Amino acid sequence: MQTTGYNAPMPFHPPELATVLVVDDEAQDRSIHAEIVRSLGYAVEEAEDGRQALTKIETTPVSAIVTDLKMPGMDGFELLRTLSDRGQMIPAIVLTSFGGIGNAVTIVHDLQAFWYLEKPAEPAVLATLLERAMHYGELLRGTERLQRQLSQQGVLGEMVGSSRAMQQVFTLIQRSAPTQAPLLITGESGTGKEMAARAIHRLSPRSLGPFVAINCAAVPSELIESELFGHEKGAFTGAVGRHIGCFEQANRGTLFLDEIGEMPHNMQARLLRALEDSTVRRVGGSEEIRVDVRIVAATNRSVLGLQGEKALREDLFYRLNVFHVHLPPLRERKEDIPQIAKTMIDILNKKHGCFVTGLQHAALQRLMAHSWPGNARELRNILEWAVITAQKDLIRPAHLPEIMGTRRPSEPAAVERKDGAVSFELGRKLEEVKREYVAETLKSVNQDRSRAAQLLGISMRTLYNWLAESKQNARAAS
Questions:
Q1: CA 76, 78, 81, 85 torsion: positive or negative?
Q2: Domain residue limits, the chain
């Protein structure tokens, strides 16, 4: 291939100091492609294999990579895999011979390289792809800058909070999102674990792929394998057709496993194998299906609780807990309540066609004094009630629901409320206090068990178990 006298089209003016790294073990091919890139107005760095390329990247800001696929030592695949694992999302164009096109397509899809070209690269095609890669890289950097600015102002995706605790959470999310590492999110019910998972997905290279969420506690144990891995027609009674499971649905995206600690142990072993092999097999099927899925798991138990209660197999725990993000309860970051409330009121106004302008100081003080057992989810429910009740202007204490401190005359004297707190006289048995507190919570939400579970900070399953125990104790006492 002759390159002397080459006059490349110049429809694009590269950004100042834009550097392209050309990686190829064949000195002649590397020289040819480097000359083409220079003729397009870019600065060029050269490397003869993946390891040398990583060294160059550590010392020189690189805007794009043009890399051969097959090289001795660290090849193009390992180079891009390493950069992906580190969260360094540099647009890459993969060069390959005709026989390597299959691998190149895999790299483009799985590692999200920018494109692939057969060697030797056509100058005009390479020029166009580099132009697009530069635009894409600038878009990525702009998005990262915007997210950093927003997080400093207390906003990350749907998450809001300027407190020190939430700024630490935002930092962890931003650091872990660009990587491929699994994450474990812990926090009480209602703290926003799914919102955190969605923020991680949106900030990751998988943001254009699907985000699939499944609540492991809400799926019957006999159906969870089918929900995760899918099933073939006739695999079991009621399997009238093929079902595509969550792993396949989330291919090239993110799978969010909520309440992972509730998953049966026999399923945990199958989940671990799927994570290690990146393959699944549908129930009743014989084919191993390759999947490219990033796992984000969540639980309302603490890390120590997961380990101490043996809720998770030890090997699965360590596989998931590569990155750990803990969401603090709302009672530990009450300084965020005014900002969260303002954001939620804006959202609820649009949802219900209301025109509430904010919170009266006395109403805000009532919110600040509350203990928030249901965390941010409870706050949203209370504000939704208040927005609908107020309709416009400011939310006043009278617009807040009864659980926030407005006492009913008909309430029994044995239970006293003050500013959202329920008090019991000393000397009562703990089981009696728990039973009456659950009953009072149910009463305050008109027997809405789902909302009561949110306010109590427990799962629906736990609430049903408590209610069943109360009935059994009542029968035994009678």
A1: negative
A2: 19-144, 153-328, 334-477
Q: What is the DSSP letter of 205?
A: T
Spell out the residues 6+ positions from residue 404 whose beta carbon is closer than 8 angstroms to its own.
Answer: 366, 367, 370, 382, 397, 419, 420
Q: What is the enclosing helix (H) or strand (E) of 392?
A: strand 392-395
Cis peptide before 91 (omega within 30 of 0): no
The amino acid at 23: V
Q: Which amino acid is at 295?
A: I
Q: Which CATH number fits domain 19-144: 3.40.50.300, 1.10.1040.10, 2.40.170.20, 3.40.50.2300?
A: 3.40.50.2300
- The structure tokens 């219900």 sit at 352
Q: Is residue 242 within 8 Å of 283, Cβ to Cβ? A: no
Listing DSSP states for 278-329 in one string gives TEE--BT----EE--EEEEEEESS-HHHHHHTT-S-HHHHHHHTTEEEEPPP
Strand pairing report for 115-118 and 92-96: parallel
Q: Are 45 and 132 in contact, with CB atoms under 8 Å apart?
A: no
Distance CA 105, CA 111 (A): 10
Helix (H) or strand (E) holding 148: helix 123-152
- CB count within 10 Å of CB 284 equals 16
- Out of 3.30.450.40, 2.60.40.10, 3.40.50.300, 3.30.1330.40, the CATH code matching 153-328 is 3.40.50.300
pLDDT along the chain (478 residues), means of 10: 39 62 91 90 91 90 88 86 77 73 57 70 86 76 58 66 89 86 92 93 86 92 91 85 93 94 90 91 91 93 77 89 92 93 91 92 91 91 92 91 55 45 59 76 77 79 78 61
Does the domain formed by 334-477 have CATH 1.10.357.10?
A: no
Q: What are the CA-CA distances from residue 299 to residues 26, 303, 325, 326, 413 (Å)? A: 51, 9, 11, 10, 38
Q: Across-strand partners of 279?
A: 290
Fold agreement between 19-144 and 153-328:
yes
Query: Of 202, 208, 140, 200, which is closest to residue 171 (Cα–Cα)?
Result: 200
